[in-house]
Amino acid sequence: MTLLDVQNLSIGYQTAEGLLQAVEGVSFSLEAGQSLGLVGESGCGKTTIGMALMGLLPPNGRITGGHVLLNGRDLRELTEEEMRQVRWKEVAMIFQAAMNALNPVQRVGDQMIEAIVEHQPVSKAQARQRVEGLYQLVGMPVERIDDYPHQYSGGMKQRAIIAMALANKPKLIIADEPTTALDVIVQDQILQETKNLQHEFNIGIIFISHDISIVAEVCQTIGVMYAGQLVEIGGAEQVFYDPRHPYTKALVASFPTLAGERKELKPIPGEPPHLINAIMGCRFCDRCPRSEAQCKLDRPAWQQVAAGHHVLCDHC
Amino acid sequence: MNQQAAMDLRQARRSLWRERLAEDWRVFRRNPLGRIGLTLLIMFGLMAVCSYIPPMINPMYNPMTGVDPHIMASTGPSARHWLGTDFMGRDIFAQLLAGARVAFMVGVSAAFMAVVLGTALGMTAGYMGGLTDTLLMRAADMIMVMPTLLVVLMLAALFGQLNIWTIVLMIALFRWPGVSRVVRAQTLSLKQRPFIDAARVAGASHPRIIFRHIMPNVLPLAFLYMTFRVTSAIVIEAALAFLGFGDPGTVSWGMMLQWVWKTGHMFQAMYWLLPPGLCISLITLSFYMLGRAMDEVLDPRLRDETSAG
Amino acid sequence: MKRFIIKRMAQVVVVLFLILTVLFVLFRLAPGDPVERMVDPNLTLEEAEHLVEQLGLKEPILTQYGIYLKNFAMGHFGHSFHYGQPVAEVIWEKLPNTILLFTTAVILAALVGVSWGKIAAWSKGKWKDLAFTVAALVTHTLFLPWLALLLVWFFGYRLEWFPITGMMSEEVWLDPDTAWWQKAWDVGYHMMLPLLTLFLIHFGSYLLVMRSSMLDTLKEDYIVTARAKGLSEKAIRNRHAAPNAMLPVVTSVGLSLAFSINGGALTETVFSWPGIGRELVFAVSHNDYPLAQACFLLIATVVLFSNVVVDVLYAYLDPRIRY
To answer: Which chains does B contact via 3+ CB–CB distances below 8 A?
Structure first.
């Protein structure tokens, strides 16, 4: 059953210079219990999509087109109050722990209890019991419930945030760079645990990262984003081992793989285009090694290169 | 470094400064607080300059000694005395103008001294570190929590009548810690920069590093703090004068308020009560607004907040 | 925490000792005969001699210093010229009045300033924010004695709503039948205008600090987390934003305490409120040095200890601080 169906989503930010089209015409869907990774460099719109799914765009941002269907219900048609009830109960979020995602002056346990009590008809004591269960689930000592965030290490904070996201057994979790600031060993542990928990509870995950190798490890499907557009989408194996879009190729080449053969890492030359101006043709053509004169003029169309593997490029 | 390169560097630095100043001025002008503050200040500046005119027109307009021969008591506004006269027939408008002069004199000189002292001590503390730093900062903490007005009052109790320059000096002596804290923090972060190390390796002496390399970088910040010091100096002087401990040889706004209050005219003579208090409050407000606006100019983080909103 | 408090107290004692020393040195440097300045000419010969002995004024200078420190520790401040009684009695009688007026005003101003600052930041850019900010800016920069005189003129003289001087009406307090609540009411009635003055001067600075601190806090990531958790706006504001935004406000209360004390002395003077600040002003203008000295030292002590209280409060509010 389709859990999330994003159709033709466009998001803009009102800025002093005009409307900045941060996301344009993005479509993807996610089955229950499956995971989808969104990769791209910073500013490509992946985090904006995550925030839009939560209904948490900043005041100057708004969805300018398309639909977001969660279990068949269009989130754009919900009132603010209805959306508030969807948050964390149906869609939760895993933030980057290096960010100040936990309130520094509140006990970590209380911050979780708060999330439960807000959405479930349970008493504080019952919620606390559930939090204790969550601590065990993510492998944290229960007696640390009453600590403050600054008393936790980076890895513990990340676990706490994961536990918090599971508090209401949501159907969908958006994980935004969940392991970026952690050292490699902890990163690996946390990714493994996330995977296990996902299977255990049948949760759909949207995994946002700039690191395609991590995403390939965790997700069944990968969507590659560039300058506000999805440029390639397909199965993790397909996209990672057989990238078609020149940008995806460059992205794969720019990261070291743990298992892969030794090869030279290549940074991608150039800058992504400024999204204030309307762009007619392919957005990557200025940085593309294979671009032709026509690329700049024609709007690229989706090509199917294999079953379930699509590319937004006319020459692939 | 050869002569030519040094010259070029200096020139480049100067043009960079000029650009920075022009940019800052643009940001400043966009800020409504800064515009209002500056306008008010210019007005007070004009008042101070004009304070020399009335006594030249007629000696009876001398704010301190000029008495209208036909008036023995306080009278309301008239063509002869625009704001009326005080209890012995002196012209209130002339006093008000003289008060602006005193306010600027007290405010700017006390603030300037406080900033010079605070910058010197702050740089020393930050640069030397160790025991010097600890001692200076402890002293700063101690002085910072003392109520300056009451301290100056106590000194008046010990040494009797204080003249205006003693008062200015006292205010400066007690208002430097705020500046020195900020300057110290800035010095500490500058000390970590490579160009200080480079200077040290090149054999520059401590004073040379402090004055040539650190001072130019902390001065803008120090002078931002000066605008806040000006206010507190003016207010403290006014409060002292109001309590009757001002310099009897000067006419300040605080002194005028004391006269209204002590001669029991505050219920009958609004024309006398309103102007000096309004002036003190407005000059405080204008320096405050100026400081806030400059804060925004110097701190880009604040700038973003206002433009994105 | 206990160790921190003890350490801070020790610092306070050191600072007090320094202040006492400076005051001692300045007093010897000041023009005039120390005996004449400390001993009221109206005392009888024996009384005067006893006082000179108690204060050690005829001893060698170092012994004098020792006696002076000891006297301060014991609470012997000498004899007031004006009141004709020991200074200690005078100031212990006035201290509660100052504390009553001052703490009520500061607490009220902090409560109102903080809650309005919270609202102003929350509705940033709307009319409510503008109104609060302008009101805060204006009252915050008003010259306190002038504001006091205006309030006296308006509420005391034009409307005749409140008394304009003193702390109590004689007829109420001299009447043996007056109940305690009538006395309390009388004091509260007299306190209205001085309280209003101090309140108006103070709430603005708390409001402005809270507003800007709140705006900073609202940009923090944990506010996004709170939103994502589906909390109501009110819960986000009161449970997540405000407790964090409070921290700079507490610091600023500590830093502005000195200014508040200046303001307290001015207010007491204008309204003839029988407190320590007014006593200091009065003593200085009437050359009553023993009284002035005692008032000053008492105020300095209170200021120093209040700063310790502020530090402890900060540590209590911010779990990241552990001393």
So the answer is: C
Q: Report domain extents, chain C.
A: 2-73, 87-317
pLDDT tens readout for residues C187-230: 888 999 999 999 999 999 999 999 999 999 998 899 999 999 99
Q: Which of C160, C215, C262, C272 to mutate to test the interface with B (most CBs of B within 10 A)?
A: C262
The residue of B179, B243, B255 whose CB has the most chain C CBs within 10 angstroms, and thus the best one to mutate to test that interface, is: B243
Cα of C171 vs its chain's centroid, Å: 30
Q: Please answer whether residues B47 and B97 qualify as being in contact, where contact means their C-beta atoms are separated by less than 8 angstroms.
A: yes
Nearest-Cα residue of chain C relative to residue A94 = C225
More confident of the two residues A98 and B138? B138
Look at residue B140 and tell me whether its pLDDT is greater than 70. yes
pLDDT surpasses 80 at C272:
yes
Q: Which residues contact B224 (CB under 8 A, 6 or more apart)?
A: B291, B294, B295, B298
Q: Please check whether residue C228 touches A, CB under 8 A.
A: yes
Percent over 90 (pLDDT), chain C: 46
**Interface pTM, i.e. ipTM:** 0.87
Q: Any idea which residue has 């054999």 for tokens?
A: B203
**Full strand arrangement of the beta sheet holding A2-15:** A18-31, A2-15, A61-70, A73-74
Per domain, the residue ranges of chain B are 99-255+272-302
Nearest to C221 among A54, A95, A106 (CB): A95
**SS3 assignment, position A62:** strand
- Chain A residues in contact with C126 by the CB 8 A cut-off are none
User: Which of A63, A151, A154, A65 is closest to A108 using CA atoms?
Assistant: A151
Q: What is the pLDDT of residue B11?
A: 72
Q: What fold characterizes domain C87-317?
A: MetI-like fold (1.10.3720)
Say if the Cβ atoms of C142 and B153 lie within 8 Å.
no
Tell me how close the Cα of B1 comes to any Cα of chain C, in angstroms.
45
CB contacts of C31 in chain B (<8 Å) are: 159-160
Nearest CA in chain C to A146: C319
SS3 B37: helix
Which of B246, B251, B249 minimizes the C-alpha distance to B63?
Answer: B251
Spans of chain A, pLDDT less than 50? none
Q: What is the DSSP letter of C238?
A: I
Closest C-alpha among A218, A147, A177 to residue C221: A177
Q: A104 to chain C: which residues are within 8 Å by CB?
A: 222, 244, 318-320
Superfamily of domain covering B99-255+272-302 = MetI-like (1.10.3720.10)
What's the whole-number mean pLDDT along residues B36-53?
90
DSSP state of A87: B
Are the beta carbons of A85 and C230 separated by less than 8 Å? yes
Q: Which of A84, A95, A148 sits opposite C230 (nearest CB)?
A: A84
Q: Looking at the predicted structure, is the pLDDT value of residue B301 above 60?
A: no
Distance CA C284, CA C280 (A): 6
